[in-house]
Amino acid sequence: MEPLPATLGALRRSQWSEQRIGRRTVKLEVRENLCEKLRRGEALFPGIHGYEETVIPQIVNALLSQHNFILLGLRGQAKSRILRSLVNLLDPEIPAIAGCELHDNPYRPICRACRELLAEAGEDTPIAWLPREHRYVEKLATPDVTIADLIGDVDPIRAARRGRDLADELTIHYGLLPRANRGIFAINELPDLAGKIQVGLFNIMQEGDVQIRGYPVRLPLDVLLVFTANPEDYTARGKIITPLKDRIGSEIRTHYPLTLSDALAITAQEAWTARDGALQTEIPDYIREVVEEIAFLAREDKKIDHRSGVSQRLPITCLENAVSNAEQRALRQGEPVAVVRPVDVYAALPAITGKLELEYEGEVRGVETIARELIRGAFGRAFSRHLARANLQPVVQWFEMGGELKLPEYAPATALLAELRKIQGLLEQLPQLGVPARAAPALAVSAAEFILEGLWAHRRIQRSEERGYFAQPRSSEPHEAAPRPRRQYN
Questions:
Q1: I need a surface site. Which of 164, 367, 446, 485 has the fewest CB within 10 A?
Q2: Dihedral of CA 451/453/459/465: which sign?
Q3: Is 281 helix (H, G, I), strand (E, B) or coil?
Q4: How far is CA 46 from CA 32, 50, 85, 328, in A?
Q5: CA-only gyration radius of the chain, Å
Q6: Domains in the chain, number
Q7: Count of H helices and E strands in the chain?
Q8: Quick one: 354 and 219 in the same domain?
Q9: Position 2 in a domain
Q10: Three-state DSSP class for 147?
C-alpha cells in the first residue's frame, strides 16, 4: 500500500487530485457513499431496529437530496444513535492542511491562516489525514450555550501575543461549528437553544457569514447539519425559530417499536445480560416478552403521560435488573445457572418506576402501584400468547380444593420444584413454553411460576403476600376489578 501524500504537490499527483476533492462537499460525499451502499445492499444503520420501513427510507431521501435534517421524537427512540451512525457514510479519511483548526480543504482553504500558508509554502504545504471519526461533532443544546461556544469569539490573549488588532481574523478562537468544517455537526434538543443563538446558526449555515464581536467574518463552511428534538419541547422549554426551521431541509418523525419482535431485538442488543464470570445466566423467552409488554402497556395506559413517552430504556434496564436478581439468588444457593423467574421481574421495579411520568390519576394511585399493574398485565398478555389453548383447569381445581402455594424468592430451585410437583397438571404444561419435561430444576420452576402468574393475571386464581397463590373467591365475578397488587414474595 502506497504511503499517503504528505505535501500539496504529492497530493496533486495522487488519486486525491483537485478534480476529485477540490469541489466535493461533505453532503456530496455522503450522497455518493450512500448510493454505493444502496447498490451493494449493505446495512445503512446497523443496530437500528424497527425503522426499516418508516424512518430509514426518509433519512435516505434527505441525504440523497443533500438536506440538513431534524429527527423529531420522544425520548429513547434512538435519535442520537442514528446521528452518530452517519459517520459511517463518510470517507475513511480525507486530506486537510496540517495544523488547521477548520480542517481546510487543501485546494479551497477558507481560513486566512491557511491561505497565507499556501501562498508562502506552495506545493510544499504540509498535508494531514483526517479520519472519519474526527469529522463528527455533537453538542447538547442548553439555555446557557453562547454564540462563542458555537461560532467563536475574539481571543485577546492571542491578539496581544501576535501584536494584531482585535478585528483581525487571525485573533479568532473558533467555536464548535467552524471546527466541524468538512464534517457532520449535530445538535441534540435543538429547542433548548436560545433564539439569538439559533439566529447565528441559520445565518452561518445559509449565508456563510457571521459577526464576531461586531466584526464581520466570512466562513463558507462545508458541513452537514443534523438536529434532534422532542416535539413536547416546543411548548415545554422553547421552540425552533421559524427562519431556522425553514432552512432545515427535512423533518423526520421517529417512533417506538411497533412490533414485539422489533422491541425484543432492541433489548437483546442493548441489555447487558451476557455476564462475565463462572455463573451462567439463562433468560426464558417468555420472560423477555413480559419485559417488553410492560413498555407496550405503559405507552397505552391513560394514567401515564403520553407526551413524555416511555423510553425503550425501560425494558433494557428492567431485564438487566431481573438478571441481576436471578444472579443474586443463584449465588446465595450455590446454583450453577441463574435462571430468570417471574419474581425477578417484580424485583426490577426500581428500573421501571423512574421511567414513568404519571398523569394526575396515576399520581394519586402511586407509581409503584401502577408499575405492579403493568407487570401483571404483561404476564397476562404473554400467558395468552403461549397458553391460550392449554387445559389448565386441573391446576385451578387444585387450588379450589384448598391448595395453597408460596414460592420464596431466594429458596433453592430443587425445594420449590418439589412443591410445584404437588399441583396436578402443572408441570405437564411446560413443553408449551419450550421447556422440556426433564428440564433443570431452576428452569422448570421459572416456567411453572410463569403459568401461575398468568392464571393470577387472568383472575383464575388469587395471590397475596402472606399466602402466596390460592383459590379465587367464589363470590368474585370473572371481570371484576383486580385487587390492589402487593409484593407477593418473601
A1: 164
A2: positive
A3: strand
A4: 19, 12, 8, 34
A5: 30
A6: 2
A7: 22, 15
A8: no
A9: no
A10: helix
Q: Is residue 105 part of a domain?
A: yes
Backbone angles phi, psi at 239, to 5 degrees: -155, 165
Tell me how far apart the alpha carbons of residues 325 and 341 are, in angstroms, rounded to a whole number.
9
151-198, pLDDT tens digit by residue?
887 766 665 666 666 556 667 778 898 899 999 999 999 988 888 888
Q: Are residues 236 and 360 in the same domain?
A: no
> Which whole-number Å values give the CA distances from 387 to 202, 289, 400, in the listed order?
57, 14, 20
- Give the per-residue pLDDT at 7: 93
Q: Determine the residue type at 211.
A: Q
C-alpha cell belonging to residue 341: 423467574
Collapsing DSSP states into helix, strand and coil, what is residue 399?
helix
Residues in the chain: 490
Task: Please state the rounded mean pLDDT for residues 268-285.
Answer: 91
Residue 110, in any domain of the structure:
yes
C-beta separation of 87 from 133 below 8 A: yes
93 three-state secondary structure: strand
Determine the residue type at 160: A
Distance of CA 129 to the CA centre of its chain: 32
Characterise 402 by phi-psi region: left (phi > 0), alpha (psi -120 to 50), beta (else): left
Task: Find, among 3, 80, 89, the residue nearest to 42 by Cα.
Answer: 89
Tens-digit pLDDT profile for residues 222-275: 999 999 998 865 544 568 888 888 889 999 999 999 999 999 999 999 999 988
Q: Is residue 489 part of a domain?
A: no
Nearest-10 Cα torsion for 169, 172, 175, 180: 40
Q: What pTM was computed for the model?
A: 0.87
| DSSP code at position 179 | H
Q: Give the model's pLDDT for residue 113.
A: 86
- Domain with 69 in it: 8-253
Asked whether the CA dihedral 20, 26, 28, 34 is positive or negative, the reply is positive
Assess contact for 257 and 309: CB atoms under 8 A: no
DSSP sequence for 433-490? GT--TT--HHHHHHHHHHHHHHHHHTTSEEEETTTEEEEPPTTS-TTSPPPPP-----
Can you give the CATH number for the domain in which 37 is found? 3.40.50.300
Residue-wise pLDDT for 393-425, tens only, equals: 999 999 999 999 999 999 999 999 999 999 999
